[in-house]
Amino acid sequence: MELRLLVTFEKVATVLSFTRAAAELQYAQSSVTGQIRALENSLGTELFDRLGSRIRLTEAGERLLPYARRMIELAEEARAAVAEAEEPAGSLAVGTMESLTSYRLPPLLELFHHRYPKVRLSLRTTIGDETRQALRQGTYDLGFLMEERTEHAGLESVVLAVEPLALVAPPGHALAGGPVGTAELVGQPLLATEPGCAYRDLFERELAALAPVDFMEFGTIEATKRAAAAGLGISLLPEVTVAAELAEGSLVRLPWEPPFTLRTQLAWRAGKRLPAHARLFVERARRMVSEQG
């Protein structure tokens, strides 16, 4: 059973598209189709059901997938062990989120681009449950989490920093003058990013204990900040994402202290031996985030 065939199978099984798999592997689509057929012939069974323009794994394909991923990982570990003393190299699929990609990670990405050009980073934007599931399945090598909990089933993680939150409003807001209790937020127009963000979900939990909650949802943090600055409501966001607006005065911080603590973490599948370039990414991320404060 050739490793290159398993690599192609794993990619097709992950994205469920021959076309997309060919693009990501930089193969012709006919090569991907031919490799899958060769693997099916060697195993004597079909691995995919072809349903017109869609495909799905057969039962045999479902059984093969975890073995394929383990064999690919072992091959990568073997290569990493042999090349440990050489320049860091290899690919990393990293799950992340908008707040980190836009506001914390640029210095880290710049460092890897210039100092470690043989490390190929692929950032995938997902949050919460999606990131954890992708790590457990092996779709992601590493994943950033912003969570209240620091232990996650099937994962190992390192805490990078406590992530301060800020409840922001437009200048001159009625609640800006003194300490604010949770009860005073009931009835206020609330702005938020999509469900699934830990800080939004925890904020909703606190408010829902007092009264029904209705958020005006925006697709991005940037859009949420603009809406708050325009006077459409108040929003709880990571402090790092609103630091510039607070400094320039287009937003003000309301004196409400969240009764929960979020921690930015970097996680990977439990039991997985991280290759040298992945360990380097974890260490550099830990150092850079801690220096940012």
Short account of what is shown:
By secondary structure, this protein is of the alpha/beta class.
Would you mind describing this structure in some detail?
With 293 residues, this protein is α/β, with parallel strands linked by helices. 45% of the residues lie in helices and 21% in strands. Strand 1 and strand 2 (54-57) form a beta hairpin. Helix 1 (3-15) packs across helix 3 (29-43). The model has no long low-confidence stretch (mean pLDDT 90).
Roughly what percent helix? 40-55%
Structural class: alpha/beta
Alpha-carbon Rg, integer: 23 Å
Residue-averaged pLDDT: 90
Count of alpha and pi helical runs: 11
- Strand % is 15-25%
Main sheet summary: 5 strands, mixed
CATH topology of the largest domain, anyone? D-Maltodextrin-Binding Protein, domain 2
Number of domains: 2
Unreliably modeled segments: none
Strand order of the largest sheet: 4-3-5-12-6
Name of the CATH architecture of the largest domain: 3-Layer(aba) Sandwich
Q: What's the CATH class of the largest domain, please?
A: Alpha Beta
Highlighted features:
elongated; 45% helix; 293 residues; D-Maltodextrin-Binding Protein, domain 2; Arc Repressor Mutant, subunit A; alpha/beta; 12 strands; 3-stranded antiparallel beta sheet; 5-stranded mixed beta sheet; 11 helices
What's the topology here?
Layout: H1 3-15, H2 18-25, H3 29-43, E1 48-51, E2 54-57, H4 59-82, E3 90-96, H5 98-103, H6 106-115, E4 119-125, H7 129-137, E5 142-147, E6 155-163, E7 165-169, E8 190-192, H8 198-208, E9 215-217, H9 221-229, E10 235-238, H10 239-248, E11 252-253, E12 262-269, H11 276-292
Parallel strand pairs: 3-4, 3-5, 8-9
Antiparallel strand pairs: 1-2, 5-12, 6-12, 7-10, 7-11
Helix pairs in contact: 1-2, 1-3, 1-4, 2-3
